[in-house]
Amino acid sequence: MSKYRFAGAEAEEAWLTGTAGEISLRNRQSLSKLRTRGPKAGLRWSLALAMVLASFSCRSAGSDFDGSRAFALLEKQCSFGPRYPGSPGHRACLDFLTSELRRYTSAVTHQSFDHRFGLDSMQVAKATNLVARLWPERRRRVLLCAHWDTRPWADEDPDPRNRRKPILGANDGASGVAVLLELARVLQESPPKVGIDIVLFDAEDQGRPGDEDTYAVGSRHFARSLSREERPEAAILLDMVGDRDLNLYMEGYSHRFARSLVEMVWSTAHRLGFAEFIPRVEYYVTDDHVPLLSVGIPAIDVIDFDYPYWHTLEDTPDKCSPASLEKVGRVLLQVIRQW
Ligand SMILES: [Zn+2]
Description:
Number of helices: 10
Radius of gyration: 18 Å
Shape: globular
Helix content: 25-40%
Structural class: alpha/beta
Order of helices and strands: EHHHHEEEHEHEEHHEHEH
Strand content: 15-25%
Strand order of the largest sheet: 2-3-5-4-6-9
Number of domains: 1
Largest sheet: 6 strands, mixed
Distance between the termini: 30 Å
Bound molecules: zinc ion
Oligomer: single chain
C-alpha cells in the first residue's frame, strides 16, 4: 500500500484542492515519505466526545471476540503463501475466504475485475473483492473492510536482493481480514441492530512505487459500483492491526473527513482500557478508505503504521499476536453495538 507520513503543511496543501465529499487522489506524487506528525497533533478531546463517553456507561465489554481464533485465521491465510492476483496462494485463499464468509451469511458475492499488474503493468490477472452482507434486508448499514491481497514485492526490505520477492503479509493483509472473519462469527451469534457489510478488497497493495493511482484498485472499483441507496452510514477499514507491539494512532484523512467516527472508535478503546489506541494524529495514509471517502461515505482507517516489517519478507505471523487482534476486535464489536 502507499502510505505517506508527511509534514502538516504538505498535508494541508494536498487537501486544499479537495473537499470532504469530493476527494482527489491526485496531488500526492510530490509528497515525500517523512516521519512527522499531522497537522492536528496535540488533539484535545471535545465536549462532544465527553458526551459520547458518558453514553457508553451502560454497555457491556463485548468480550466474546476470541483473539486466538482470529490469530488462527491469520495463520491460515499465510499458509497459502503470498496472495497477489494471479498467484496460486491468491486462488486458494479466495476459496477459503468465500467459504468462511458463507458460514455466516448466504449473501456472499464476488466482485471481479481485470487487474493490470507488475512493474510494467503488462500482465493481467483477475482480481476479486469479496462482499458479504449480514442481515441484507436492513436499511441502516455499517461497512467493515480490509484488504486481502498481499504485496508482490518486498520493496522496503533492508536486503536489496529481496525487493523483487513477494511478502507473506501476516500483518499487511491477513490481520484485518482475520479480525473481520472472527467479528462475523461473533455478530452472527449476537446480532447488532444494524446490517453489516463485510468487504474484503483485492488489489490494494499491487501499486507501483511512486504511482498513487495503481494502489487501492479494489476499493475504487467497489466505491464506484455502489448506488447512492447502497451506501453505508459509515465504514471502518482495518489494516495492519496485528502487530505484537500495537500502536494505533489516528489516521489523518480519517480524522479530517470522518472525525466523529474516529472519536467514537478511540473513545471506545479508551473506555475499554486499551492504551494501544493513541488519540493523536500521527500520519496520513493513502489506503482503501480514501475511495470510500471520495464518494461521500464517512470512512476511517484503523492502522498501525509503526510496523518495522512493513513491505519486507519479515512480515510473518510471529510478528503478530492474538492479543492485538483481540483488542481491535473488541473495540469494533463495542462500536457496532452502539449503533
Ligand atoms: Zn501494504
